Amino acid sequence: MGIFDFFSKEKKESLDKGLEKSKSSIFDKLSRVIVGKSKVDEEILDELEEILISSDVGVETTLKIIKRIEARVERDKFTNTSELDTILREEVAALLAENNSQDVQNSFETANLPKPYVLMVVGVNGVGKTTTIGKLAYNFQKNGKKVVLGAADTFRAAAVDQLKLWGERVGVVVIDHGMNTDPSSVAYDAIKAGIEQNADVIIIDTAGRLHTKVNLMNELGKIKRVMQKILPEAPHEVMLVLDGSTGQNAVIQAREFTKVTEISSLAVTKLDGTAKGGVVIGISDEFKIPVKYIGVGEKMEDLQVFNKMAFVETLFNR
């Protein structure tokens, strides 16, 4: 099966469009570096290193990629600059393939998951957390799944109201207690409602701020403990939402959150309209936590299941 076989034509076009700025930024810089040169030499590799770092791939991941390309150039003795695109694509793909995070062919399918499947979502304000939850609910529902949402980010009235709006728009039940209420009691009631309504998926919106680590750890810990009173194995997944357009700030946020709670998946949003798409490669490489979804546009369908090979093929193919 080809890497795009499970993509619809629309999804492939959406991925191309969403990564357009990142892609053209990389290739504009790369074209200036190799103009008039036929052989990949040390100078070109130094420039390539700068290009990848400026595309927010991250220093550590960039050094790994450069090392792999250097070894290949050394092995092949003469590497033409016209082959650099292909080599770059192949070596980034190989690096990500070695990571322990698996691509998920269709993450909106729940056939092999426990029922109800409880997904707890964390992330700071402004990263597109609530919008991501709304789009997840839409896509699960489109796959014939019954969804219940829990508005447990209770410290911002806007977060609760926004989730309720998404619930109305998508046509799913939202459990809320309003603002400044105990997040864990909202999570408890959402799971209770989900069980009563025979829901396939329950998505709990939480912690919209990185306040002190101790407070955040305590709050998320309490939410989990209270959920487990009614469903011992909950949450089945803790997803961290990151804003890809913030580049290395997204990496810093991932580091902070992984210190205070166990993160089992990532969603990277707002990749359209930014040249920092390389951050997904750095995040995937550094954390070894599956990047499960990427946001490449405004439409509901623009929250896509992340496929490493399709992403690399799209980003590094002229």
UniProtKB/TrEMBL annotation:
It is found in: Cell membrane; Cytoplasm. Part of the signal recognition particle protein translocation system, which is composed of SRP and FtsY. InterPro entries: AAA+_ATPase, P-loop_NTPase, Signal_recog_particl_SRP54_hlx, SR_rcpt_FtsY, SRP/SRP_N, SRP54_GTPase_dom, SRP54_N_sf. This is Signal recognition particle receptor FtsY. Involved in targeting and insertion of nascent membrane proteins into the cytoplasmic membrane. Acts as a receptor for the complex formed by the signal recognition particle (SRP) and the ribosome-nascent chain (RNC). Keywords: Cell membrane, Cytoplasm, GTP-binding, Hydrolase, Membrane, Nucleotide-binding, Receptor. GTP binds at residues 123-130, 205-209, 269-272. SMART domains: AAA, SRP54, SRP54_N. Its main location: membrane. It comes from the Bacteria. Gene3D superfamilies: P-loop containing nucleotide triphosphate hydrolases (3.40.50.300), Signal recognition particle SRP54, nucleotide-binding domain (1.20.120.140). It is an enzyme of class 3 (hydrolase). It holds the Pfam family SRP54_N. Residues 290-303 form the SRP54-type proteins GTP-binding domain. It is a peripheral membrane protein. Its EC number is 3.6.5.4. Belongs to the GTP-binding SRP family. FtsY subfamily. It catalyses: GTP + H2O = GDP + phosphate + H(+).
